[in-house]
Amino acid sequence: MKLNKILALILALVMVLSLAACGKAEGGADGKILNVHVTAAIDSIDPALTSAGDDFEVIGAMVEGLFQCDASGAAIPGMAETYEISPDGMTWTFHLRDAKWSNGAAVTADDFVFAWQRAMALPAEYASLFETAGIKNASAIYAGEMDATELGVYAQDEKTLVVEFDVPCAFFDTLMFFPVFYPMNRAFVEECGDLYGSAPEYYLSNGPFVLSEYTPAATEFKMLKNEEYYDADVVELAGLTYKVILDSQQAYNAYQAGELDVCVLSSELADLLKEDAEFLATESGYLWYMSPNVSKGGALANVNIRKAIGMAFDKDAICDNILRNGSFPADFCVPVGLATGPDGKDYRESSGLLYNQYNVDEAKALWEAGLAELGLDSVELTLIFDDEESVKLVAEFIQQELQTNLAGLTITLQPYPKKQRSDLMKAHDYDIGLCRWGPDYADPLTYMDLWTDGYTHNYGAWHSDEYMEILNKIKTVEYAVDAEARWQLIKDAEKIIADESVILPVYQNANASLVKENISGIEFHAVGLNRVYKNVKVG
User: Fold this and answer.
1) pLDDT 10s digits, 476-503
2) What is the pTM of this model?
3) Residue 341 lies in a domain
4) For residues 459 and 164, what is the distance between their CA atoms, to the nearest angstrom?
5) How many domains is the chain partitioned into structurally?
6) Biggest alpha carbon distance in the chain?
7) Do residues 248 and 265 make contact, with C-beta atoms less than 8 angstroms apart?
8) Tens digit of pLDDT for each residue in 176-223?
9) How would you classify the pairing of strands 409-416 and 262-264?
10) Residue 160 belongs to what domain range?
11) How buried is residue 256: exposed, middle or buried, by Cβ count under 10 Å (0-12/13-18/19+)?
C-alpha cells in the first residue's frame, strides 16, 4: 500500500471520529440528530451495486452528483457550478465547483470519469442508464462490443468534465442526480477494493452527510454532518440515524416514544392517523404491478391467460380497504404525474390509454379462451413478493380474488426478503412476481425501457420485434429533436405493452408518514431520491 493512500485512509477515519465527537450533543437545531425510519434493510451503499429506492436515498444523503434536485424535483447545479451545451446537443461541458471529499481530497473531473467507466465495466445495476442518456459508445459498451474506457466522457482538466453523445438527451440533467452517475474518488475506491462501502472507513462523502456507523444489512446506522461539504453552512442537522424497522406497529411505537422523528406508516395506521397534525401524505411515482414470467412458457405465455389474471382482481378494493394511504388503481404502465409532454399535458392525460381494468365477466371469458387454447382445465402458479406487511396483505387479496373468479386457477403465495425476490426475478426463476418500479428520471422511457431485450429488470424476458424497433427509434437523433414524434412513438410502445399484457398493473403508490411537528424541510420526491434532508430545519 502506498504511503499517500495509507494517509488518505487514516485521514478519513480521523474525520469520522472527529465528526462523531461534535455530533453527540442533541437538542436545538444545530445539534439535532434526525431519526429516520426505513422499512427494509439497505442492500448496498455502492452506487453501482444497488437498485433499491431506500439505498438511493441513503447514498444521496452522502454523495452529490453534477446536479441535485430542488424541493420541486427540478434539477439544479450540484458539483457542476456551471455548464454549456453545444448547439447540436451532442456535447455537454461541466465546470466543477471547488468541493472536497470527506478525506480532504478535491472533487475532480476524473472522479466522474472513473465512476462512470467503473459502472459500465461491472456492469452496474443501472449501467443501462448510460445508454438511455445517449452517451457516446454506451450502447456498444453495454452490449459487450467495446471497453468501458471508450465511454464518451473525459476530463479536459481537473475541473472540466466533457460528456459526448451519440444522441442528444433532453432530460440529461435530471438523470445526473441518480446515484449511478455520482462521482467516486479513484485512488480511494481502488485502495478499498472489495471492502468499499462495507464500513465508514471504506466510504467517502462529498455531500451533506458522512457515514459514522455502518455495517451491511445493519438495523441501525448513522451519519454526521460533513464539514467538508461545500454547502455545509446551509445544513443545520448534526446528522441522521437510520433505523430499519420492518413492523409498522413497532415503528409507530418508536415514534411515539420519541425514538423516531420520521415514521413510515402502514395502510392500517395511515387510515387511523390521517387526521393527526403530524400526518403527511405524499405522492409517489412508484407503480406496483405483477410481472408474469413469459419466458417460462406454459400458461403465462398465453396472452389471454395474462389478460384474465390482470382483470380478475378489484384494484379499488386494494386501495380503499387495504392500503388506505392515498394510493389509487393503476390501469397503465406509465404513472400519473411522471412527465409533461410537448402538448403541455401530463403523459397519462395525453395517452389516455387504459388496460387490464377490473372486469370479472371479461376476465372469465378470456380465461376460458386461454385454457382452451392451451388444452388445459387447471393452472397452478406461485406468486412471489416482498416479506413486508402491506405487500403480504395485497398478495393475499389478489390470491383470493383470482382463485374465486378464475375457475381452475390455484395461486401459491411465497414471500421473500426483497433482495432474494429481486434476484429470483432477475434470474427469470419465478411464475408471477408482485413488485414495484420507481422512476429514475422524468420521462416515460424510465418505464418503457423495462421491457427491452437484455434489460436487468425485464423480469419475464418478454420480447417483441415491433416494440424493440419503436424503442430503438425513440433513441435516435431524428426523434430526440422531434418532441411530438417522439411522444407519439412512446404512446405506440405503451399500446403494445397493453395489448400483450406484459405487466399486470395494480396501483400507483402514495406514501404516508408521521413527521414531528418541529421538523420541516424534508423534501419528498417521486423521481430519483425518495427523501432529501439537506435543508431540514428544526423549530
Assistant:
1) 878 877 889 999 999 999 999 999 999 9
2) 0.73
3) yes
4) 31
5) 2
6) 74
7) yes
8) 988 999 999 999 999 999 999 999 999 999 999 999 999 988 899 999
9) unpaired
10) 3-244+516-538
11) exposed
